Amino acid sequence: MEGLLMKPWPKEGTRRIPSEVYTSDSVYSQEIEYIFQGNTWNYVGLAAEVAKPGDYIQTYLGETPVVVVRDREGVINVLVNRCPHRGAKICHNQKGNVKLFVCPYHEWAFNLQGELKGMPFKNGIDGKGGMSSSFNPDEHGMQRLNVTMRHGVIFASHSFDLRPFEEYLDPAMLAYFDRVCDGRALKVIGKMRHRVNCNWKLQVENVKDPFHAALLHSFFKNFGIWRSDQKTSVKVCRTGAHSVLVSTASFHSRQSEETAPKVRLKAPQLIDHQREFEYGTGAIMTIFPNLIMLQQLNCLAMRHVIPDGPNVCIKVWTFFGYANESQALTRRRLLQANLLGPSGLVTIDDNEILAVTQDGARGSSQSDIVLEASTGESSEDHMMTESAIRGFYRYYKEVLHFE
What we know:
alpha+beta, 9 helices
């Protein structure tokens, strides 16, 4: 798109990514418009988080603050968290239960569908003032977004002209989604939230990058949880937008006893694994634009990557299990959550490396990122490839109209 990048996209296509896409204010503004306010389904939460009528959570769709709420009829609505009167943010608590949403500025009151139901001084005082005769309350409700749900996972969109979620995800990816979210009732067992000093795309790329897991994450390598010589595969959907990395842990090192590091876990139950799925001890799925659906051993999590300007993102982790599972399995999931989150034994590596990668992009904004591992932008039966990252940028370029 003319005027968006300081220089044309490299001639090598998706084998080169301009560092500018991680740092440019103008590119970021276009991402908000074309991606997060465009024809995309965006993760906003789990139905289990709003189990009863009046239950709500506050979150973001891109940079737009939204409220996810279950109404009296049991329908889940997603409302832009903004009063149509003077633009004030209505809801300030992260979660709760309400009968009405009331703006703190002028106390306009909205029901759980976002409809305006009351306001002080509508008719003025003593016949003086009040709302004009042209004012129609039906035209001044909270903005309602398009909502869909699959197996207890809620997605929303500014667009009302986009494909059903099942088509948006693509049949190949839908099978991996349904592998974990298979229709059983879910339960939330914990949430974490933290800021990372990197562009939101770097976080999404990170879980499309098979190489780093066995190099950066010593914990994974030392205890045989994720290594490049294990049975692995990279699945990329037809458009390139979504992908999944699948690996099967061996729980031992291939090094000989003479050369193997003398590293042992004092708490081996931290990686004690109960087989739940037919294939793979680890499957990390990315759903465009910014949801990471993670199954690592018995830990299940939705990682919501929220953009916060070109140089920062916020990660919200929602750890979950199944409503009918045993307490022992839930305890195992909670224990393994220590691998992840803000200071997890694995994720803490990502937080640091992504921040220094962002520093590199800022310091050399006219340089390019090199993606030359293997070829193409489609599925591979190994992890010695960067095809999933290239696939992401093929789709990204189309959405942002880059040449």
